[in-house]
Write a structure and sequence with these properties.
This is Tryptophan-rich sensory protein. The protein is mainly α. Helices cover about 85% and strands about 0% of the residues. It has two domains: about 110 residues; about 80 residues.
Length: about 190
């Protein structure tokens, strides 16, 4: 839905240079997304991870290219910049999940699911830290929080006790929010 705003932005704006500058890469991400769906649907797990990594890379290039300069208007911020922040956030989470699926496919079993969740949470926190230190991106962080909340809700709906996975996700949410607020505040001071 947010990317629909990106698609119409060049038609409703007099100055759409930022949107147009990433349009070719956006088409590439669309093709990669379609490729991922096909690979996943036909259980080509290895291929789906490769496609997901390419998609993540393409989105990172778009993200960095857009953030080389600030948006020219509030409209551009919400119709061009924020959609790619959210898209990158979801693909970051999906990449971690896709790699997890690949490891499960190869019967890689960590000592416990809790340890695996802790490792995934640490990976996500490191990425959140890097994105926020450089860009102070609230939208990106909120996607990570949303995904972690989804894990908590799924776990608490099926488990009577709140185990280590719920605790890990809760701590990761608190740290994500702290990192986001900290770097957003620092960005507003400069």
């Amino acid at each position: 839905m947010l990317l629909a705003g990106y698609c119409i932005y060049p038609f409703i704006s007099e100055n759409a240079k930022h949107a147009i500058s990433v349009s070719g890469l956006f088409v590439v991400t669309c093709l990669l997304n379609c490729s991922w769906i096909l690979a996943w649907h036909y259980l080509f797990i290895e291929g789906s991870v490769v496609v997901m990594m390419l998609l993540l890379f393409a989105l990172c290039v778009i993200y960095v290219k857009l953030h080389k300069s600030p948006p020219d208007s509030r409209r551009e911020k919400w119709l061009v910049y924020k959609p790619f922040s959210v898209y990158l956030g979801w693909i970051t989470v999906a990449t971690v999940a896709n790699i997890t699926a690949l490891l499960v496919h190869y019967d890689f079993s960590p000592p416990s699911p809790q340890n695996w969740m802790i490792a995934m949470a640490i990976a996500l926190l490191l990425i959140v830290y890097l994105i926020n230190k450089k860009f102070g991106d609230v939208a990106y962080s909120l996607v990570i929080v949303w995904a972690l909340l989804g894990i908590i809700l799924k776990r608490t709906a099926t488990e009577l006790q709140f185990g280590p996975i719920v605790t890990t996700c809760t701590v990761a949410i608190v740290i994500t929010l702290w990192i986001t607020i900290h770097y957003r505040y620092r960005k507003s001071l400069t």
